[in-house]
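Morning F.,

Quick status update on the modeling queue. The single chain you submitted on Monday has been processed. Sequence for confirmation:
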Amino acid sequence: MVVLSLAPVPHARAAESAAQTSERDIATLVTDTDHYRPGAPLHVGLRLRLKPGWHTYWINPGDAGEAPTLAVQAGGGATGTSGAIAWPAPERLRDGPLMSYGYTGDVLLPATLQPTGAGDGPMVLKATAEWLVCASVCVPEQGQFTLTLPAGDPSPSAEAPQFARAAQARPLDSPFAATIAPDGTLSLTGAGLGRTAVQDAWFMPLTTGAIDQDADQPLKVADGTLTLALKPGDAFHAAPTLDGVLMLKDPAGEVRALAISARPGPAMAAPAAPPAAPAATVPLPAPQGAAGGLRMLLLAFAGGLILNLMPCVFPVLMMKAMALTRLAGAHTMARLAGAGAYAAGVVGAFMVLGGIMLTLRAAGAVAGWGFQFQSAAFVAAVCWLLFAVALNLLGVFGMGNGIAALGGAGVTRGGYLGDAMTGVLAVLVATPCTAPFMGAAIAGALTAPAWVAMAVFVAMGAGLAAPYLVLAGVPALARYLPRPGAWMDILRQGLAFPILATCVWLMWVLALQAGATAIAVLGTGLVLVGLAAWLTGLAQGMAMQDGPARQIRLCRALALTALAVAMAMLPGLRAAPAGADTGLVASGPAGTEPFSPTRLAALQAQGRPVFVDMTAAWCISCLVNERVALSSAPVQAAFRAQHVVYMKGDWTNRDATISAFLESHGRAGVPFYVYYPPGDAKGRILPQILTSGLVLDALKG
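Structure tokens below.
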């Protein structure tokens, strides 16, 4: 055993220990935050920067090698012990007649630690790690590391991207049914498997000796079926299931890792060998092939269509209802032009959001549906925008068609810019909601090539805009619209109040995200936006009466100054650090626990049933589900009767732990619900829109 020497490092970074070095590698203990807070999960990890030609090993090292170990103990201001390593998917390392599984280059082996205690001083992390590094020779190494974290609100450290990449490299739960035959034939069935989707596949078992790891694994795949001919090893029958990681490589060269647990079953008829694959396709686990791609687009369209009925979009739908009454009696082409501009705004906004999500994820960041609402500055800006819209509807200032008024333009050409900007606003306020079918479509989009992903976002936008296009374009329906009249002024003013109610909701979200100081900034901004609206209305009134041009220009200049001052305050708004307690967990039913992977694993090991609720304050669908279903008396009584532990993950602010959990289940946003019965490690995923009956049925099994 080689004990590494301590390299002379003058000052260790707050989230990385002093390095221990050898001629083979550099090893450090790292954390994903630079402070700690009791009760907030802390991610720790052994980081190995392996020299070229050297490698270390996975949990199953294969035919040769030894798995690394890591034990971290916390002391001082808080105590705790790290859990098991969350293993990223490994590489296959062939050495002559031997096959090993491991890692090369810069690798992070992460684990989770739950600090407990008073948090009244620095927390000292002491870690012991052992690992084996091999090239032409193998050298066992060990290291002892010390890292001190001050108490305080956790914020992402310089090493946080390493943890995000490690989480993304973890195998996703397989969506396919898997069986293993007595002769070693591994069979997978399910939508998304096809000759145009899988170019190569290989299986790596969790247990050493379960299969002959060096033997070839002939692959045969057809639509909906995949088989690998594995050669059983000495430990093939040692466990009731064959557990491991299945790697799927598509024709574009992208590799996906799926965690599978194959149950005993008969050997399936092997499909014919696949022909040469085309140059590109949609990566798994999204549905593949023409039929699968069409299904994903239909799901996206249906999700966008249903989004019209979600509470997030209600204020904007009310505004469009007002626009429809204004169009009553207009020529069909005029109605279609306005509806087309609205649809263009909707689809364009979906494409921009989708492009930002894909760019962030390609850069290693974790971004899901509704990610922009995790920004306190964005929440405040939307609140001010909606407040200005409400003032416009109340007649404080008048620019005709809705949102274009905010820029003082777009009222020409039939107000088409206003229609387009209304579509953009509809998408912005819709993102806190996830309609049925949207979760599967977004998850598929984020694992697909960029052009397929953008097609999915376009389909969602088309679904959201479709009802208005139909109403505007079908003359038979247009005849049923009420005729314009004096009543429209009363209706227009009344529409301001649902929008003002939305502003109140956004204030609550911001208070949970960033605290009381942010509310003071938000309130100041509301005063400035109101002042700008009043000055704009004053200038408009003087202009209509041919008032002095100098005074009109002064009012407009002061209005722009007020808006500029408000916008200048936005960069100072910051959401609470990742893992900070917003109070959303405490707002749940009595006995609600904050989500923790370590706690979840411990409860499962004890055989306790667990219900996991991933939520956010800005997710209206989440809040409605909690009020209607999860907090209902029958569901709470069933939780108590069956001793179900109710765990709540708060994604109001960015949280890498929750993001990794969502990623591991192929999801990109909230709400997300999983029920883990005793003995069921995979759990049962519930729909995004809940009723008491759905939850009770899941508890019954």
